[in-house]
Write a structure and sequence with these properties.
This protein folds into two domains: 5-175, Jelly Rolls (Sandwich), CATH 2.60.120; 181-291, Homeodomain-like (Arc Repressor Mutant, subunit A, Orthogonal Bundle), CATH 1.10.10.60. 47% of the residues lie in helices and 18% in strands. With 293 residues, it is α+β, with helices and mostly antiparallel strands.
């Protein structure tokens, strides 16, 4: 697994849990890692999962749990059901940072089984088939909940998993030791955090390289080798994600979203927005509004 890349989960501001339905867009089909834990079920289609040094066939109804920074990648395939109808490969994933539960783990021994579950999730789990239907139902319910209720229900889901038959490990300690460089992970996560804190400011390649005590060419090679994209590409994608959050929240109009997300030019903002989202900011705003009306 020589081409493991770093990935930044696009969390919304002031939120610690993200629930999304996805196919093989962005970098999910590549072997990647991210700081967040991930709970995923296969909704439709088939394909394979790469985790550790192993490759597994996947099918609808299966549930997987990945710990922080575990290299993994799904490659889904379109299939047909028993009626001959086409099924596009789709997964539903819950991304969360385990830090939201750390104080709970420290102060409440009753949560020991959940802590143990997440500690061992660094190897990845394919969850027991007997528990999957109930877990899937609970994950689907998360999508309809308010922020605080999501945290409570996620804790309930993890408790349910931790007290049942957890299933099978996906990788071994040896896999992680031979395929990972901890120092690189720390630097990439620090780059992500730096960018999250400064995306509204002017950020040049020289600025970020200097912050991490590298020359611009060295930093560029380092970042691209671990993310498969340039730093400027990553920065633009993050700013578009932030602009979408502003528009979705209804707190900013399109122009305000442009400048508050770090862009300094309206035409550049529109061009990048259309390229990344497949629609203009105005079309995105109308689509968001229609969902709530």
């Amino acid at each position: 697994m020589s081409n493991v890349i770093a990935f930044k989960v696009p969390m919304q501001q002031n939120m610690s849990i993200r629930v999304e339905e996805c196919d093989d867009g962005r970098n999910y089909d590549l072997v990647h890692f991210h700081e967040e834990c991930q709970l995923t079920y296969i909704r439709e289609g088939g394909g394979c999962l790469m985790a550790g040094s192993e490759t597994y066939r996947i099918k609808p109804g299966e549930v997987y749990l990945f710990g922080s920074n575990l290299p993994h990648g799904f490659k889904t395939e379109d299939t047909t059901d028993e009626n001959g109808m086409g099924q596009k490969g789709r997964r539903v994933s819950v991304f969360f940072n385990r830090n939201i539960f750390e104080s709970l783990f420290q102060q409440n021994p009753e949560t020991g089984s959940i802590k143990n579950l997440l500690d061992n999730a660094s190897l990845g789990y394919k969850l027991s088939a007997g528990n999957c239907r109930e877990i899937i139902s609970k994950i689907d319910g998360l999508r309809k909940m308010d922020d605080f209720d999501k945290v409570l229900e996620l804790l309930n889901i993890l408790d349910f998993i931790s007290k049942g038959n957890r299933g099978d490990y996906l990788s071994t300690r040896e896999d992680l030791e031979t395929n990972f460089v901890d120092e690189d992970i720390e630097i990439i996560n620090e780059v992500f955090a730096y960018t999250e804190s400064n995306f509204q400011k002017r950020i040049s390649l020289a600025d970020v390289a200097g912050y991490f005590k590298m020359t611009p060419p060295t930093f560029s090679r380092f970042f691209k080798s671990r993310t498969q994209k340039t730093y400027i590409q990553f920065l633009i994608e993050l700013r578009i994600t932030k602009a979408c959050e502003f528009i979705r929240a209804g707190t900013h109009n399109t122009t305000e979203s442009c400048f508050n997300s770090g862009f300094t030019n309206i035409s550049s903002f529109h061009r990048h927005f259309k390229s990344i989202k497949g629609m203009t900011p105005t079309e995105f705003k109308l689509r968001v509004s229609s969902k709530f009306n």
